[in-house]
Amino acid sequence: MNSINWKKCAVIGAAGKMGRGIALILLIEMASLLAKEKEGSGKDEYRLTLIDVNSAALAALYEYLKTHLLKYSEKNINRLRDLYKNNPLCVSNKEIIDDFVNKGMQITHSATSIAESSEIPIFFEAVIENAEVKCDLFKKISANNKNAPYFFTNTSSIPISLLNAKADLKGRIIGFHLYNPPAVQKLLEIIPLKEGDPELYLLALSIGKSLGKTIVVSQDVAGFIGNGHFVREIGVAVDLVKQLTKNHSFEESIYMVNKITGDFLLRPMGIFQLIDYVGLDVMHNVGEIMNKHLSEHLYEDSLFKPLLANGKAGGQHTDGSQKEGFFSYRGHAMTGIYDLSQNKYIDLPNGEWQARCDRELGNLPQHYIPWSSLSRDPENKGKIETYLKELREGHSKGCQMAFEFLKKSKSIIDQLTVSKVAASKEDVETVLKNGFYHLYGSI
Amino acid sequence: MDFIIFMEAFRKKIYIAAPYTTIFFGSGRKEFDPTKPMPKMESYLLESAKGTSEQIPHANFDEGIIGSFMAARFIHQANLPGFLPFMVPSLYGKPCTGIEGACGTGGRAIAMGLRAILSGLSDSVYVVGFEIQNSVKAVYGADYLAGASYYAKERKAGEAFFFPGVFSKRAGAYFQEFGHDLTRRAMAQWYAQSILNARKNPKAQEFHNSQKNLTSLAMALPDPENFVPHLNYYDCSKVSDGASSLGVFSENGLLSAGINFEDALEIVAIGEAEGDITLSPAKLIELTTTKLAVQKALKAAAISIAEIGWLEIHDCFSISALLALEAIGLAPEGRAPAFILDGSTSSEGVIPTNLSGGLIGFGHPTGASGIRQMVDLNLQMTGKAANQVHAVKPYGMMVSMGGDDITVTCIIVKRAEK
After folding, report:
1. How many whole angstroms separate alpha carbon B233 and alpha carbon A184?
2. How large is the ipTM?
3. Fewer Cβ neighbours under 10 Å: the N or C end of chain B?
4. Which residues of chain A have pLDDT under 70?
5. Chain B residues near residue A77 by CB distance under 8 angstroms
């Protein structure tokens, strides 16, 4: 296993949102290793094969990788100068950056079929979250391969054991779940098979470390840690919306729960805005998968289905801007909220009804500081503790609802720990802090 | 060996008048948007020429001098003297010269103007300096600016951001020798003072800077992983575009131009010194060449530093300011932090310094800065400055420095008298 050369690897589904992000971080790492090689040597040791059925998307992927490799180089010039310190031919920043980008792009290779992948030992898989599609690919790749290749799957919810059995991989698969976008998000969930190959596990750890990721190991249970927590929190949010819709409209309820789970909980965004970011279709799919593979019925689609039926699926445009879901957006800025009864978006801010909802929720605790400031404050621990104390003792409806939500969130953390999906409470908190940018763990 | 040579007084009077500076443009100005087209070199040159010419009732320069550090790389333009007749049509058919001395270009350009007057070949010289740096991203501009050092020997081992790296080393040596905390606080106060002054100068790059808690901001920890070990971004002058110009005149030239004496300064003395660019500084905690240039100027002027009422120093970095104050003799070695923290360099202090905002506050288009310093001294000493301070002492001093204390010009001026 240790002899497996992951410097020749492939990304399947490379042109997709996650696929291209995975391709980028692999390319950065491979280009960095190549930069340290003696001039003229090493080039043939590295090859990143980008596989996707969409040839137009592959062409766009090449430009995407080149653009982002350049951006990475310019932003990390200090690191690059260190990589090139023994290369006398590259002196100026420009010479170093140009060499890094050019040599990096030279090791990429695009393919619309798996035919050219017969000698590749490792595949990073990032196709759609569908067990049949994934397993079909795994079988075809294995059949076409001279070796017995290994698969690092980016599934965020499908049990690895299911994929292993369905594709008859005989243990040659491990969960390697990166968060979106992989180039920015530090978190990596590694999900080994229950009695999987320890060397494959060590290889996954080693690659994750090379990529600079914060690694948390999850047991092979549908949803793992990240979605295990998120889907359950969505359930709590949906229940809260249902309670509120007894006396409020759909959009008022969504607005209030979003504000509670965003501002009141000191999170970067409310839960419905987060669902928009991930994509309603993605979360619906994940929810259904978890319902299928877990004994508890976690996901209830009553809020998602009407929006999905009306084409409000969230996610991102190709330029990275946010698509409409529960909210509408310009760029990433929220501009409206979905009125289910009229199938249209109401502008935000919106004077009367929004002010009424804000009054009903009441004031934020006295020592509220926005997430954007707190997250950059190295001395935030005491400020967060003060805030949470005020939240717990607050009499406003918003404080009370937020604190109840937090208690349920804590129960979810406990459940994931007790059921051994996560090895410890700290592992769950690491996922929440690194993958979801929470500022604090369980209360 | 004693390098201090007594200079005779100039054999004729030399005047500075018609000072003009464009806005020094870059991040910090609210109109700056890197995604939109920016003013080009031609607009800065024409504006500065117009600004100077309009102050001269009978403008008829005998020669022109144009300074820029790296126009050849930033905007692929050399043969800069060819632009002088474009800027000042009366210079067509007359001698025009290009000058380069890295960030000390401006000081050298004024020095060449002075020589032209002393030579007797000219009675009036148009002197302009400019730079366009926003044509490339800072990560690439850093390579161009590294040309102010011994590139072949130093670039490879240098920091990505080369000159911040050079002065970061000096800061590190200063911290080690004299202590970190007080020095760090003085550097932060220097930043705050620079911004407060810049806010009073509508053409300054930091004029729109409305940040609160300036000193606290500037106490930010350095980020060695992404920048340099001992300096933060607040310690550094920014990338700038701009131009400054003025006229250098004999008495005859001043009178012929129709300029009033009360609008002019007289150059009392000049101290010029060049270091050896191939050698590393003998002492990282001293600007030796600057010290020499200032001593020469003071000796030639036959005055002491205590008689200087206005001072413009070359604060490309906050640590450069501290070291310059010690090189000038305003504070003993290691005592510049206390000198700054006591408020001595503020507008109410014993020696108001960089009332313009200096390089950190006003901006630093490298070819223009030395001339901009003289422009600001002219405005202060003739009572026309935006951030006006009426000093009691009669003299003004500017120190223009190129590279790591390599090319230094110190000029002492006083108000012109009939």
Report:
1. 23
2. 0.92
3. N
4. 1-4
5. 139, 160
